[in-house]
Amino acid sequence: PSQYLVTMDSDDNSEEWATEELPPFPSANQLEQNQPTFVFDDSYWETKPVDLDQNRHDPNSDAEGLEGHPMILVDFTVLSSGTIHCKFDAKSVNDPMAVKDLRSSIEKSYNKYASDAALLAERTVVPCGSSVWRPALQSLRMEKPGHYFCPIFPLVEDKT
User: Fold this and answer.
1) What does the DSSP 8-state code read for residue 90?
2) Which residue, 38, 79, 87, 103, is the most exposed by fewest CB within 10 angstroms?
């Protein structure tokens, strides 16, 4: 078995020999005879591509089995006159405390925002279902880069 020297902390002057085995490096004879050896390349890091659309809901398909509840997606950038945004990172926001305050305010007045014709027409408020809101949110964020859209669910006492 191969062993190698391990130095512990920089403050520690002690050294000890590690006891784990290193993979053997192929000898010249093994390389010439094409014997199986360990692969010394980046294949460990390779992954298979993932189909992101496989779990998306097809709006033309039968919606049986999907339980959803009404909710809204709100463009906080428009409502805050541009002070809340995600210009530098699509999955982040520049002012999380302002988002918390605005979200709380909208949740308390959910029915007002969900039925406001002007906000709906401008697509500042987008009605959605709770079973498909994640892909809809991604789509809106790609459609309007830099705008921070937030999912708003009705409070329990507003549900009928």
Assistant:
1) T
2) 38
